[in-house]
């Protein structure tokens, strides 16, 4: 023990602890709590890993932030006490930290690299587990299934992706299919939006999305798309509840909003069921087969969602 520690007052120790956590978690206490809860609830319970994994994660992160000159190899030796499975979970924990999603990012953020990184939090594609539904990051193996879903005529109609029946039913060109494939590759690493696959029993049923983020107004748009062959089983409601819980807790948005066409009353009921509030109608603002339809506007506020969760406890 050094002389500094011998003469530290209680206030000095408390300040040192605050300084440590400010350095380790520059986004504040909220980030600490979120990461800890995620580890406690997801990793420790689901994977039953050694709780010391989190300690080793902080050890490596602190070494980089302190400008420690240890090589990656030397730091990795510190992890040899863990099993291969624990090391894999260590990497997953690292991905959860919105301030450093890889060891190279820790290096960039610590100033040891000239390359700067600007993180929004959308880079992290979480796995959210419900009773029946699992939301997860898209994988290349999901692309064919999603192309199959978005080409279902009913999906194109309900999402407003086409304005005529002929367009709904036509065969897609190779160029269009290539664009779809590239799109579902790009969203896997997108930093301006969050797209997750909706899965049940390992099968992809659709997607759930946050996009068009307005940081100044602290709001973001929401949408969900599902294979209509799996409708009316409650999967959509469960997916939305999982997703909204994560969105409000992780990003603390003030407002999440959406639009829905008047010819989709089933979607309106589903949105209202999870807590979205009807705000108004833009009359005859969409056309399909030369017939005019209204667009309805819904939103849910952070206060709405938190109040709903309290009331349901």
TrEMBL record:
Superkingdom per UniProt: Bacteria
InterPro entries recorded: Acyl_CoA_acyltransferase, GNAT_dom
Keyword set, alphabetical order: Transferase
Domain N-acetyltransferase: 133-304
Pfam family of the protein (one): Acetyltransf_3
Molecular functions per Gene Ontology: acyltransferase activity, transferring groups other than amino-acyl groups
Transmembrane segments: none
PROSITE patterns noted in UniProt: GNAT
Name of the protein this chain belongs to: GNAT family N-acetyltransferase
